[in-house]
Structures are given as C-alpha cells and as structure tokens.
Hints:
Layout: H1 4-8, H2 16-30, H3 39-52, H4 55-64, H5 97-106, E1 123-129, H6 131-136, E2 138-149, E3 164-166, E4 175-182, E5 185-192, E6 201-203, E7 215-226, E8 235-238, E9 254-260, E10 266-269, E11 272-279, H7 281-285, E12 289-293, E13 299-303, E14 314-316, E15 332-338, H8 346-357
Parallel strand pairs: 1-9, 11-15
Antiparallel strand pairs: 2-7, 3-6, 4-5, 8-9, 10-11, 12-13, 14-15
Helix pairs in contact: 2-3
Amino acid sequence: MKDYYKILGVEKTASEEEIKKAFRKLAHQHHPDKQGGNESKFKEANEAYQVLSDKQKRAQYDRFGTADGGFGGFGGGPQGFEGFDFSGFQSGQVGDLGDIFESFFEGLGVQNRRPTYRKGSDLEMSMEISLEDAFSGITREVSFDTFIVCAKCSGKGGDLSAGTKNCATCNGRGEVREERQTFFGNFAQNRVCPTCNGHRQVPNKPCPECKGSGRTKGARKVRVEIVAGVQNGQIVKMAGAGETGEKGSGNGDLYLHIKIKPHNIFTRQGDDLIVKKEITAWDLLLERKIEVQTIEGKKIKVELPSGLNLREYLKVAGEGMPRFGSFGRGALLINLTLKSPGKLSHKAQKLIEEAEGA
C-alpha cells in the first residue's frame, strides 16, 4: 500500500493548504520538462495529491488504505467492491464485515443521495517564454480546446421557462438500481442517474446543442499574467480557467508549466545571471574598465580590480533577475577569460623585460 502522506512529506494531520504546498514543491522539483526532473516521482506525487486533496477520497484512504472504492486487501478483481462508495462512513474504527454491510445498506436510500453535477477538470499546459520575458514579466493570451459554457443555453441545459419534468431514466428518483455479482453474492446498488445526474428533473425543452449538460467543446482563451522573476519549471495556477463544469457546477483550474528558452548571451543561476567576457593581458595589467551588456540591453562599464582572480566571477550587484515574490534583484556574474596574445613586437617585448627588471 502506498503511503501518500510520506510521498508528499506531510503529516496525517496536514491541512489542505499544507498538502497543496507540498505537492507544488515536488511538482516543481520533479517535473519531467525540467532539467533533472523525474517523471516517475512526478506521477507518484500527483497520484498522492489527487487523493489527499479530495475530502472524500482522503477520508476513504485514511480508513481503508485505498481510495479506489475497495477495502485495502480486498480491492480489485472479481472479489472486490469496485463501484461502491464508502466515503459516507463516519470516522472511527471499522468493525467486522457485518458492521460494514449494515452501514453501507443503510445509506442506499434515495433520500440520502445528494444530487450533484460534475465539476470541471483541472488542466495542464506548457508555456514557453524568453529570458527577457521572465525578467520583465508579460501578459499573454493562451488558447486551448476544452469544455466551455454552452452558448445556446448559457449553461442552463435547456429552456427553463418551459418547465421541467421527471427524468424518464430514473422516474424522478435521481438514481438507478443496479445488481452486481461479487464473491460474497449478489448485491443491489443505487447509482446516480446518468441522465439527470441525481437532480430527478430534466428540462421539458433540453438544449439541442449540449444535450442538457450546459457545456460544449470549444476553444477557451485565457489572459495569463507572468510575474517578473518567474523561474524555469515553475507552475502558475489560474483558478477557474480549466474545464467548465456541468450546469454551472464550477470550473476546474489551469496549471501552466513555465519553460524559459535558453539565452545566447546569459545563463541563469537562481536570481543571478552569468555572462562571458574575454579580456586581454593588457586589460588585466592596466586594470582597465571593460564594457558588459546587461539583460535590459544596456552597456555598463566595470573596472577590473587589482589582484583579480580569473577563476572567480566578477560580481556586479543588482544587475541580475528580479527576485520572484520579493524585492531587489540578483547579481550579474562576469565569467572572465584571458585572450591569448598574438606575436609581440620587439618594442613590446623590450618593455615587458624592462618592467620585469624594475
């Protein structure tokens, strides 16, 4: 049995916010699109989050060690209880099988079923930006295909002014009864009606475009604001920008995975930027000022200090990337390389010899 709490690195008493933060950290660390990412660990963390972020699934997992509708060791295959929803049990220890069945069948009544429509799913997509975009921050419009609000009925599923009627599939009960054969014998189970989704009523004039669901397939356009200093591989959440739910039941969220394109001049290291600069021996000996380009496109003069160690970066504070979610900027780190001199003239050789003898 997988320990989802251990996978996310949280305690069993962790709050929803703590679970969400732990998942974001692991997703950022292991995302397969990121250099050094681990697809297996990313999927494992995602699986754990999908269970622990859902109140019913988490309650079921805490009680039975699984969130797939089974009883741990009894789950799966013809011997299992797949399809049954045990999330309605009260907290506490579960007794013998007789107690389980008694609690289960007591909850089969129609009056205990809460009608519900399906909420929209969360969506993920990648967004590639330049280093300059990451420096300044950008606003961009992205477009993708998903379920959107039905334009014909405005998401209502039909002409509500024409009234409603009992669902013909479930005869207004909100549920349909199914019988299943299991290892323990035949069991009757009530399921939410697939036609009315448990609402018992359907419009007299259902929308011909969406067939009463209130949503259709289409293109969704979302305006995305990327804040200055965003990191490569960072996940940006757009609340409510995902898939549209059925009949206004709520939209899912959109998760954008930011990918920053490699730059031909700068290399990013956290909030710092590294740039290469070639200098001559004369620059070094005479401690000249060198000209270096910044990410903003400016040219700045930097003085070469005496006793400079070419193995270390020459640091210019405040010329790096903005600190995401904070103030200030990182540094510009100049990686100096010494240009090999050409053949010296007789006069130059003589000057060097005189300097050495001085």
